[in-house]
């Protein structure tokens, strides 16, 4: 990663929806001996992208050429191009690297080395932003009869669009549908939340979805099941029969309260 600090001068150009930034800065991870210009591209995953080989045009004499990150991406030698990914092609003429489409895994610092040179004209820093990765499995840290406190792990990729908030999905019962209960939208990207409005003595599980400006992540694994605590019944039994059976005894029969008012076993 190359970090930019004042008083460096930045140039920003937007072309076909892509953000293109040029600057001079130290590229310490790849070349430690000199300052090399850096060209930065930011693109959304799924879109096509072409990055030119710095210093090369249609009139350049090129015998050999290598595009690489921490591995070789594409090569040209003896008039034959060789590319190691079907999504990527080496354009004839100017040897630009074309991604169709780009994916988040393409994020890297690229160098184009011409005619076996050891130092590139500049470094191409490509950032392909995508929807967030899935959060970790939620943990239930505490619960009552009508509320559950959740916590889940999530590590933000610093080169991706930041997570703005999370969606919490609630399932009632062991095999109930996930759309049975309304989704809960958190107010920020905090990874803890208290879910309220639950029913006593009911089986629940939960899962989370991370959201950024590009969309939603896949759902996390569901939490382990929890049974909320019991409460004192709110319903009352209803007497159906009551009569004397002798001078010293009485017979009584009743209906139990409605099941949703027992709030326990």
Would you write up a description of this structure?
With 265 residues, this protein is mainly β. The protein folds into three domains: 38-129, Immunoglobulins (Immunoglobulin-like), CATH 2.60.40.10; 139-228, Sandwich (Immunoglobulin-like), CATH 2.60.40; 232-264, no CATH class. 0% of the residues lie in helices and 43% in strands. It has no helices and 21 strands. It has strands spanning 11-15, 18-26, 35-44, 49-51, 64-68, 72-77, 80-83, 88-90, 97-99, 108-114, 123-129, 139-143, 148-151, 165-172, 184-185, 192-195, 203-212, 215-216, 226-227, 238-246, 249-255. The strands form five sheets. It has an eight-stranded mixed sheet with strand order 1-2-3-11-10-5-6-7, with no helix packed on it. It is rod-shaped. It starts with 10 loop residues before the first strand and ends in a 10-residue tail after the last strand. Residues 1-17 and 21-30 have low confidence and may be disordered.
């Amino acid at each position: 990663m190359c970090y930019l600090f004042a008083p460096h001068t930045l140039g920003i150009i937007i072309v076909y929806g892509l953000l293109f930034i040029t600057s001079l800065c130290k590229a310490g991870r790849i070349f430690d001996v000199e300052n090399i210009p850096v060209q930065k591209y930011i693109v959304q995953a799924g879109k096509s992208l072409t990055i030119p080989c710095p210093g090369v045009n249609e009139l350049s004499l090129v015998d050999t050429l290598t595009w690489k990150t921490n591995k070789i991406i594409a090569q040209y030698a003896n008039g034959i191009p060789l590319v190691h990914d079907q999504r990527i092609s080496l354009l004839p003429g100017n040897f630009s690297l074309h991604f169709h489409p780009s994916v988040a895994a393409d994020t890297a610092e690229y160098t184009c080395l011409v005619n076996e040179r050891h130092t590139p004209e500049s470094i191409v820093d490509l950032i392909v932003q995508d929807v967030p990765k899935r959060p970790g499995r939620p943990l239930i840290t505490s619960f009552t009869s009508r509320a559950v406190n959740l916590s889940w792990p999530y590590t933000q990729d610093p080169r991706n669009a930041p997570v703005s908030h999370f969606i919490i999905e609630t399932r009632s019962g062991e095999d109930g549908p996930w759309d049975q209960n309304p989704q809960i939208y958190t107010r920020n990207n905090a990874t803890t939340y208290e879910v309220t409005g639950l029913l006593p003595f009911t089986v629940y599980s939960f899962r989370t979805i991370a959201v950024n400006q590009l969309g939603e992540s896949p759902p996390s694994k569901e939490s382990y099941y929890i049974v909320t605590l019991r409460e004192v019944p709110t319903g009352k039994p209803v007497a159906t029969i009551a009569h004397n059976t002798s001078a010293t005894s009485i017979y009584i029969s009743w209906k139990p309260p409605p099941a949703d008012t027992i709030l326990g076993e």
